[in-house]
Amino acid sequence: MDVVIESANVLVVDDEGAIRYSVSKTLQRVGYTVAEAASGEEALDMMGGQTYDVVLTDIRMPGLDGVDLVRRIKEMDADTIVILMTGYPSLSTAVEALRLGAHDYLIKPSSSQDIRQSVAKGVERSRNLKRRRNLLDAIRNNVQELSRNDADFAAALGLVDGDDKQRLMDAVTEPTANTVMTLGPLTIYPGRYQIAVGDRPIDLTPTEFDLLLYLAAHRGRVVSCHELVREVRGYGVDETEAREVIRPHVSNLRRKLKTAGQDADIIINVRGIGYRLSEQVE
After folding, report:
1. 3-class SS at 66?
2. Domains in the chain, start-ordered, CATH in brackets?
3. Residue range 61-91, pLDDT digits in tens
């Protein structure tokens, strides 16, 4: 039997009532909270007042079709997970939908198992994106707080006047869509799963990237393996198993840093407790 450990909000969009009913019941049986929309326009109206982890939509609908709906949803929130369903598959439609950011593409009639598996993967992806966004926000807040302290200190010493202090603060608090962040000797590119040491880019897996971000967001303390698995991977295990889960990701991350010429010991193993970042990134 399928089990949903944690509920999620799903929006099912289809102009055929029987299909909406069938798909909704399939998802409700395993614990999802499901809403229905009979058109793309109705779906957009509903999304204006409610957040959905996953939107599951037909492609061929009167008015706003599924591909156009993907485009509009991504304009509203690029992190929203969209799964397309169609009884008239074509390569060009699939390519266009995926290019616009659709998460998956199901051929109707789809089995209950296929629908549940696709939605489960979409929910996992949605939560990973939210965790990553929270990590980035935490790092930015840390950087901003440090910058405020530095600006206050400089002003107290008379090194900058009020206008200069404000310009310093504006420089670190101005939000940008694709902020490049500096963390000690590392440059972090949030939207690309990529960091750099000097002019040498390092491609990371999503887990390696999130692991580094979580340690960065909590630098100054040792983070247990249990906490890393829970916050980075999204599930809970005991500390012994957590060490086995996290160790290979840390090893791969250290290897990539060393290959790029960075001290691999930027990630410190505190035996029996967990990991922390070295003082290099403070």
Report:
1. helix
2. 9-126 (3.40.50.2300), 128-281 (1.10.10.10)
3. 999 888 889 888 888 887 788 999 887 766 6
